[in-house]
Design goal:
- By secondary structure, the chain is α/β, with parallel strands linked by helices.
- It folds into two domains: 165 residues, NAD(P)-binding Rossmann-like Domain (Rossmann fold, 3-Layer(aba) Sandwich); 221 residues, Dihydrodipicolinate Reductase, domain 2 (2-Layer Sandwich).
- The protein contains 15 helices and 16 strands.
- It has an eight-stranded mixed beta sheet. A six-stranded parallel beta sheet has the order 5-4-3-6-7-8, with helices on both faces. It has a two-stranded antiparallel sheet with strand order 1-2.
- Strand 11 and strand 12 form a beta hairpin.
- Helix 13 crosses helix 14.
- It is globular, with a radius of gyration of 22 Å.
- 49% of the residues are buried.
- The structure holds nicotinamide-adenine-dinucleotide (NAD).
- Nicotinamide-adenine-dinucleotide binds next to helix 6.
């Protein structure tokens, strides 16, 4: 049960009242000829590197969104959050963050409809669960939760809440991910049965603060291992293969290479005798997890955030009538000839006919808005629509729980030498109904 500190809350009354007055109308002003939009008031927790960029997308790319309050425990980040809201929203938001639980006072405000959570991964789940318990909408950045118990708590909180939760997995909004999703739904590839997803990103420069202390990413690779940042990899194949939408993941097996890259990096940066060189990092340089589904499909995910290589997310989707490989192209073969060559390079031939509506209509706007090539524009817009219309999200709490559970279950499998580990059914059997998520994505 979440307890809000009433005294602290009342101490902020003056500012809150001002903010309420600022956000009092329910319909936002728009230019002549435009349809009025319902006002949406969002609090943002975590205004470090990514938070301000999400604030910009919320305010600059969406009409009728206001940010009456932000929260960060780091004074510099907090100031950055306030300045970003001022720049794009025109108001000075109330700033919270006197300690790690001050976000609860922000969530308790009546003038906030929802929160966007962009903190260290170790806090994402706790804050989202508290916000759902307070009946607020939640847009949570990846990875969503930080323990198996939090996965369950998230699902239970969602089932009781009047608010809606969306995992803001931006990679699912990539152009090719949505194009393939569209083609699958229109039967181009036949039934899908195998997918690969990956997140390979050399993040070692983000593991240490300038004073040599570990950041949250550094603590993640020191304390956790397995597929520790899974959703960028698993999200697209899970959507292509209908996970939690007619099928579900039932078990996983994982292997991991020895953790060497980080030690190599720490020695080079801080010296062989430095305290950093003595840290025992647990996360292997690359981990591979193979997942079985109830319908006999497989997903493989590769996760490597400490390897010396350029950023790469590669994907494969295999269906009975063809396949997609992000490194080679699309192959569709409805006849009986042997498959010797990729018929088309990348997506050019199919884009005209099967381009997803989001890109057909708004590719230029998304690209101009920036943020990982446009995907942040779509993921933030999707959150805004969910919260404003009280709509069921495409990527919901069940997806967040299932996808993030791989972080914990891959570790258990590694501990057992790669033996299969059962994946819980977070949906409680709802996945069997192929219609329960109908209409959630255009
Ligand atoms: N989807 C993407 O493409 C993408 C890209 C980058 C980061 N992220 C995610 O965004 C989140 C933030 O990443 P970042 O790079 O901005 O990290 P960051 O360390 O720069 O920012 C995190 C901020 O959260 C604050 N914070 C931590 N605990 C808090 C608490 N209890 N209350 C209030 N503030 C708290 C910290 O002080 C910090 O300023 C992470 O979850 C990360 O996984 C996603």
């Amino acid at each position: 049960m979440v307890r809000f500190n009433r005294r602290e809350f009342l101490a902020k009354t003056t500012a809150t009242t001002a903010a309420t007055a600022f956000g009092s109308a329910t319909v936002s002003m728009v230019s002549a000829g435009e349809k009025p939009v319902k006002k949406l008031r969002i609090g943002v927790v975590g205004t470090g590197r990514r938070g301000p960029s999400q604030i910009r997308h919320l305010l600059a790319d969406n009409k009728g969104v206001e940010i009456p309050a932000i929260c960060d425990i780091d004074p510099q980040a907090r100031a950055r959050g306030v300045a970003t809201v001022k720049q794009y929203g025109g108001n000075t938001p109330e700033a919270y963050g006197k300690d790690e639980l001050d976000y609860r006072n922000m969530i308790a405000r009546d003038d906030i409809d929802g929160v966007v959570v962009v903190t260290d991964v170790q806090w994402l789940g706790k804050i989202s669960i508290d916000a759902l318990k307070a009946d607020k909408h939640v847009g949570c950045d990846v990875t969503g939760t930080h323990s198996l118990d939090e996965c369950w708590q998230l699902v239970k909180a969602q089932e009781k809440s009047k608010g809606k939760y969306m995992l803001m997995e931006n990679c699912c909004f990539g152009r090719e991910t949505l194009l393939m999703y569209n083609m699958i739904r229109q039967g181009v590839f036949g039934d899908t049965y195998f997918g690969v997803g990956s997140y390979v990103h050399d993040c070692r420069h983000l593991y240490f603060k300038p004073n040599g202390e570990l950041t949250w990413r550094g603590r993640l690779v020191r304390d956790d291992y397995g597929s520790i940042y899974p959703s960028h990899a698993i999200g697209s194949p899970a959507k292509w293969l209908g996970i939690n939408d007619g099928d579900r993941m039932v078990s996983c097996s994982a292997v991991m290479t020895a953790p060497r890259g980080l030690h190599f990096y720490a020695v080079k940066k801080f010296g062989a005798d430095s305290p950093q060189a003595k840290i025992e990092f647990k996360a292997g340089d690359i981990s591979t997890t193979t997942i079985n589904t109830a319908k006999g499909k497989n997903i493989r995910i590769d996760c490597g955030i400490s390897s010396t290589r350029p950023y790469s997310r590669y994907y494969v989707m295999q269906g009975l009538k063809g396949c997609y490989d992000s490194r080679s192209g699309v192959y569709v073969n409805d006849g009986d000839q042997a498959a010797h060559a990729w018929s088309d390079q990348l997506i050019a031939k199919y884009a005209d006919k099967y381009e997803h509506e989001y890109y057909r209509k708004d590719a230029a706007t998304a690209t101009k808005a920036g943020g990982h090539g446009g995907i942040d524009y779509f993921v933030v817009r999707e959150f805004v629509e969910m919260a404003r219309e009280n709509k069921e999200p495409w990527i919901d709490a069940y997806d967040a729980a299932a996808w993030t559970s791989i972080m914990h279950l891959s570790r258990l499998s590694i501990d057992k030498g790669g033996a299969p580990v059962e994946i819980p059914d977070f949906t409680g059997g709802k996945w069997k109904d192929p219609n329960w998520r109908k209409g959630r994505m255009v």
